[in-house]
Amino acid sequence: MKGVAIVVGLFALLALLGPELAPYAPDDDDLEHILEGPSAAHLLGTDEIGRDQLSRMLHAARTSLSTVALVLAGALSFGVLVGSIAALRGGIVDEVLMRITDVALAVPNLVIALAILGFMGAGTTNMVFALMLAAWPAYARLSRTLIVQIKRRPYIEAVQLMGARRTWILRRHLVPAVLGPVLVYATADAGFIVVSVATLSFLGLGVQPPTPEWGQMLVSNLQFMETRPELVVFPGLALTLLVIGFNFAGERVALDRVPRPLSKRALARRRKEALA
Predict the structure, then answer these.
(1) Can you tell me which family this protein belongs to (predicted)?
(2) Distance from C-alpha of 14 to C-alpha of 8, rounded to nearest angstrom
(3) Backbone phi, then psi, for 46, in 5-degree steps?
């Protein structure tokens, strides 16, 4: 768990402080130092138009993580809203919303995103919107299932009998209870969104040059794979480590929510407290 926290925390720190730590601006070109190897002036070398590779890597960390954060925030918010409405209203509203959700879940996320981008055009904003529309159904289905289970509990029924409004019950009791499991799923889903952002940028449909992004850096430097492999290796390695960190973090958070059996010492302590 410590290693996972270090990896994810390191990337978050790079996203926060990377542009300030970068020795050069990401779009500063130097035609006199094209495709140079690592040196004191350029620790990771330069690309085909003389831009510092380290500076672009550091700026790309913020681009990638901020994009993932926007997609997760939008998908989670809209998905929880749809799931909450379906669970609280029930009847035909629940049936219609869940059938729409099932249809969206039956289509792979990247296929939906590619279809939306084919209609709206390439660009960072359109990519974020497309990935939001592709990711929200999973959160809607999960939140709807959880709310249906929770609202049948005695304390919720008691609050309803006391005359509390649905919106108040949703805000004070249902949404706080749902956020925990939904955030666990979002942590695990972050790795897939990182890959989706890099894939769409690799295809030229996401982040557009000269804005640095790891997937876009891969496709622009792929032609120099044989002569300057580090131009491809470092962005690919950064993506790999980030995805692995998010996946392990999601699994670990999910495991931490599973109740564990108490040790003999803990059981003895609780018996003493109960007797006291």
Answers:
(1) Belongs to the binding-protein-dependent transport system permease family.
(2) 10
(3) -125, 160
